[in-house]
Amino acid sequence: MMVTLTIDGKQVQVKKTATIYEAAKEAGVDIPVLCYAKKLLPYGACRVCLVEVEQMKGRLIPSCTTPVTEGMVVTTINDEIRKVRKTVMEFLLVNHVLDCPVCDKGGECDLQDLAFEYEVTKNRFEGEKFDLPVDEINPLIERNMNRCVLCGKCVRVCDEVVGYGSYSFINRGFETKIATAFDRGLSCEFCGQCVSMCPVGAILPRPFKFKARPWQLKEVDSVCGYCGNGCTVTLGVLKEKVETIRFNDKTGVNDGNLCVRGRFGYSYVNSEERLTKPLVRKDGVLVEVEWDEALDAVAEGLEKAKGDKGVGILSGARLTNEELFVLKKLAGTLDTSNLDHSGGECYRGVTEGLKATLGLTASTATFPQVEECDTILAIRSDFYETHPVLGMVVNQALQRHGAKLLVVADKKGKLSKMHGAETLLAKPGCEVNLLNAMARTLLDEGLAVTDGVEGLDALQASLADYAPEKVAEQTGADAEAIKAAARRLAGSKKSAILLAYGLPYTAQSKELAVAAANLAILTGNVGREGSGLYLCGEKANSQGAIDLGILPEGSGLGSQAMLEAAGKGDLSALWVVGEDMVVSYPDRAKVEAALERAPFVVVQDLFLSATAQKADVVLPAASFAEKDGSFTNAERRVQRVRPGVPSPGEAKTDLEIFYLLAAKLGARVSYTGSAAIFAEISATVPGYEGIDYEAIGPQGAVWGGETLEPEFKKVVPVAGFEPLDAKFQLVTGSALYHSGTVSTRAKGPLAVVPEPYVELGRADAKALAIKDGDMVTLKSGGIELRLQAKVDLRMPEGVVFAPNHFDDGQINRIYKGEAAIAVELSK
Length: 827
Description:
There is one protein chain. The protein is α/β, with parallel strands linked by helices. The chain folds into 5 domains: 2-77, Roll (Ubiquitin-like (UB roll)); 110-269, Alpha-Beta Plaits (2-Layer Sandwich); 279-342 and 543-702, Rossmann fold (3-Layer(aba) Sandwich); 348-542, Dimethylsulfoxide Reductase, domain 2, CATH 3.40.228; 728-826, Beta Barrel (Barwin-like endoglucanases), CATH 2.40.40. Helix content is 27%, strand content 19%. The chain has 24 helices and 33 strands. A 7-stranded mixed sheet has the order 14-13-24-23-22-15-16, with helices on both faces. It has a 6-stranded mixed sheet with strand order 29-31-30-33-28-32. A hairpin with a 7-residue loop joins strand 3 (50-53) and strand 4. The longest helix has 16 residues, at 291-306. The chain is globular, with a radius of gyration of 28 Å.
């Protein structure tokens, strides 16, 4: 519903839910603000946005909190308003320190701008300047409360969006300040949302301190190179170096929201450890050579392998769509169908599970719809760890719309702590059992949507052993909670089902996707506007890799089959592009055997990784910040990736390398640029039809539309998992501060979590006399690992967790793709 009002003599028509400030902004009228942010609820703390409303004569009202009404007449500036705003500014500056020359916010400080605009050159009020200690305890965020104007934006964003609650107002009157619990140093998840919200220099990013003034930076909009969330990032570039990530809530669908990786994980782009020249192994040692010699060696090795037992190509999913498209053409040139990505074949949940149930290979809805949902079901991992910004959307659904969050997991986590969350704890690897029990509840109680659904009889028969009571006894969950969760999903008009996939979540990826899709079908979730089933990949272009068919076809070998074949001497060459298999793939011994026994290995990467060290030829590649192209995120949103800096030394983009290698191989692969490649993608790849590369705007282009209709709805029987009978079970996965192995090269994430660890609950720690920080031994299958202990409250008894990111941790020596691993734990 729309209303009409007049602002400074200009008639404006806006939504009934708009505030005066929002209406003025829409009309192009500028009203100053300090405490307002479009993604936060109205607050009205600073009072610099005061305006006059004809119908409310006699007082000025805050425009950021006052809703519009029909016929309202608003004046945003006159002598009285200017006088009041100037007085407000004087009050704000009574105790505010005047250290603009050394404050990093200088040049983009809202308070500084307003002081200039309202000519506050002197102050009628006198007051002692604040002299509070500066919080520099943590490595990423500096807090200088002497500069704070009490706008409350940091408090609100941490609560309303992040759901962490690090900040609060304490004291009263002139002693009021924003502080952490017990007024200690800041210790949080370091997403930096408070940094982006602060209008002054009270909260600043430490890695950027004294690096540059804002007007010196060139800003380049691109897409984060970490997870499949696909957040827009704005690179702050100075002297051909990424110096910071700038706040930008005008581009993309993430509203400027970023996690610790996206905001502080950029430094690997500038790393001095980056490869700058090609390397060729001579007399057993990798030595630097010119590009021509390296490419000749690669072409010779691959051609020889092509004529022998064939080539296997293993790609990462952080290449652009255009690079992946050309790589597939090169696979054809080499006469190989042995083409794959994600070594644990964890994407099978999408490519096989969803394909069997819905005829799709992608999520069915878009991320913004999650915020409007009544019920959200997060499966398996703590989804917040893998996709933090989507986790923030979940928090907003809970905080603003009263959504119910159901978490099916083997441990507690960030999502478990959110308001309105309920965690159905299951023994590791038993999530399918719980989902089956929910499906049975829907069918037994007549709550299931069955119109047009195939396979109901077969599913019903297969669920005979999955009564909620039996599953509860088996998994440790509560039977009534299982039933209540099923009923809640069935009764929701809008719902979201979330499932992450990635290398550390290889186990049961297909089975979990099938079970989740069964639930989505039976609750009417699939194909319904505002609802969706989301399968979210570990890497920035995991969905693009699936869309473009970077998968084995026909008799082609998948990643694991390639490694087995190479280890047996049945494959003549391995070409690894943008993936550190030795560290990230399950079963390290298998990977190392394949790399050692393959007659020829070429690795294309940013660093001399553990995998690259075993190669015959190493080609230096470019990071996301040096590329032109596109990524497709987990909601099917195609977005532009733009180069902000040149590649170091002689490093080249993967696309340039493919072009050069194609020429050496005699292949006809010639394009004028990324736009020309994407034109062929849009002409040949299902779903991408009609997407114009040059027309991809700030919000990207969603292939398939906001709601992706299934080709069919078929429920498929899927077996659960018998829990391990072991005193201790190890599960692996992602830590919030890292993504894959790339983040272990970035100073920001490493400053918070610098080394591998094993996490256990307090009860287990007490029983084993283990204290936080102790070194402990993990034993499994005759292999021992020594890791630092991390003791907390989130791990159930008998379950321990270790992240998979670190080479030093070598978790994949015992992790071979299982849902859980029986281990012995000792001090």
